[in-house]
Write a structure and sequence with these properties.
7-stranded parallel sheet; 4-stranded mixed sheet; 14 strands
Length: 322
Amino acid sequence: MSIKIGIVGYGNLGKGAELAIKQNEDMELVAIFTRRDPSTFNNSKMANINEIESYKGKIDVMILCGGSATDLPQQTPEIAKTFNTINSFDTHADIPHHFEIVDKVGKKHETLNLISTGWDPGLFSIHRILGESMLPVGNTYTFWGEGVSQGHSDAIRRIEGVVDGKQYTVPIESALNKVRAGENPELSTREKHLRKCYVVVEGSADKAAIESKIKNMPNYFDEYDTEVNFISQKELDENHSGMPHGGYVIRTGKSENGMKQRMEFVLKLESNPDFTSSILLAYARAIKRMSDNGQTGCLTVFDVPLAMLSPKSNALLRKELL
């Protein structure tokens, strides 16, 4: 039997999930829930989110594709009252609180829910725990990019006089090289990443003022060396329409006799939402299996055995991959 999937939200991540289901033969898309009028889409799977309760018993796992700032904190505990869910909540500091809320709802309503699944948090989290466990004496470093930061790009676009913009997070090569050499450097935020901004402004806009606002924006750019490039809308559309991303998790350390060791995990992604949605679907498979075994509450990637992610049997995994 196929795993019946519902998607909540039809932005970049929701569209990526719709495509990714086609690559998973054991999965079936039942419905895509949106706050917009479903009739405006040329898609028979679209449904208004107000209809979601009518799908009870028809969907095994809901993939929640909203934003972490406002959508997921509200939607996850509400939808978890009726459905198994999985989300990519990525506000790292708020994960413990979000987990507690969803765990209580899941246990009360007998659903199973997995939060903060993607590549960071998610795959990067797994490699951080692997590194710290296997090289207990050492340091862990996470670098992001080169890639588009959607949150930082949105912050640029909210500045008065800005028409459009994209921001790229770029790891600083010299810092990467020091880490890979086993120097175990203490690196500040500014020493690890560069921010590159490509900005389209209104014709009469004060470019110097806009550049200053960007570079001094707290919580976004003020702690980084930031490069601001003013370009035309045509150039932005032609050269910056994609959503690439990626990064590195590096653990360096020494064995007891002083031998240097390094573990490194690398991602190079042409499409961040396409890859993230594929991770969500793999974990949706695990949630369905673990739910069928009677588990309820909330999980993270730390709680899911790797074999649960694969459509292959344990015997086949032992034969082919072990």
